[in-house]
Amino acid sequence: MKKLLGSVIVATMALSMLTGTAMAGAVKIAVDKKAVAFTDAQPFVDTNSRTLVPLRAIGEAMDVTVDWNEETKTATFTSLYAESEEGLSEDKASYLGKVTVDFVVGSEKAKVTYSYFKVGTTSDSEAVQAVEDEVTMDTAAVVKDGRTYAPVKYLAEAFGYVVTWDAETSTVKIDAEVEETAKDEAKTDETKTDETKTDEAKTDEAKTDETKTDEAKTDETKTDEAKTDETKTDEAKTDETKTDETKKEEAKPAYENVPDNQGAPEYKDFVDKLK
User: Fold this and answer.
1) pTM higher than 0.90, yes or no?
2) Has residue 12 got a pLDDT over 80?
3) Phi and psi for 96 in degrees, rounded to 5?
């Protein structure tokens, strides 16, 4: 009896520990930073490491309607949009007024349909164009314990949300504003890059100006040296001229240096006769 009681106690403790661990590791979902409350069924991670969520709760959190077709085992999520500049088609004649996402239980294909309506009409009217896109998934919608679950990543992304995983809190974050934040960060990076390029350009210009200045100084130095050489040349020529004049003076006939009282003409005749 004691052994049986002990076994029951041990089994109860083990079950409590497992339950506590499971609760502690339960997957949470947050849409635009608001936690989604799942009352009768909880999200879970399947064997493909994808988070699957009950249809109704996630549909309400994302403000989309959910329809279930028992015959085809298809869950359809629908979101309606009012006419806006952002949703206009290329020809401006129609706008995106409805997006539907279909998940078929057991299929790894999801169908996304984009419906366009004539400008000036509402999305309750007949669509003028419907564009279908087939999305290949690495998991599928399933039925578990009588409830249908859809892969939240593919569902949210079809409606333009950005899905991220917070491992620290075991939370799937579904946000519509992450893209804008990423764009702002990208713009900031581009601005920093442009500023860097501008600084590099200024540095290159400064280096070029310094090079030009150095070249100008070199040219001035060469000019000064040339002038100095010319001055020296002129001085040398002057000295040569003076030397030539001196030589000419020295080469003058002796009679030109004879005083007048010696009778230059007669002396000249005398010298000429000696030649």
Assistant:
1) no
2) no
3) -75, 115
